[in-house]
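Justification of resources, computational component.

The compute hours requested in this renewal are based largely on the per-chain cost of generating structure records like the one below. Each record pairs the submitted sequence with a full C-alpha cell output. That output is archived, and it is also reused by downstream analysis tasks.
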Amino acid sequence: MRPEKAQSKASQITTNTSTTLSALDVEKSISYSLRAIHKGWGANKPKGGENMKVRVDKETCVGDETCVEVCPEIFEMQGDVAAAKTEDVPKDLEEKVKEAATSCPVEAIIVEE
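The structure output for this chain reads:
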C-alpha cells in the first residue's frame, strides 16, 4: 500500500474509532491513545541514514512527566504538558527516547525512525 493511501486509511480508522468511542461515552484518553497508535501508519518508515526524530502530541499529553524522568536530555515540561527540547535525537539517546515513548501512559510521544 502506498504511504499516502495508508495515511488516509489510518486517518479514516482514527476518525471512525474516535466517533465510535464518543458515541459509547468512553473516556477521552482512550480515544487519544488509539489516535496515537493509528496516526503514524505508513508515515514513519525509515528514510535511510536519517536520525531519529521525536515530538510530543500536546493534545494527548496528560503531563505525567514520565518522559522527563526517563530522558531529561530530550524532554522537558512546558506548563502542564511535556515537550521535546529538540526534534532530532542524537544516536546515543535513541534507546532512552524509545523507552520514554513506551513508558508514556497515553502514547503521546511520536518517534520517527
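The CA atoms of residues 66 and 103 lie 7 Å apart. The two ends are 19 Å apart (CA to CA).
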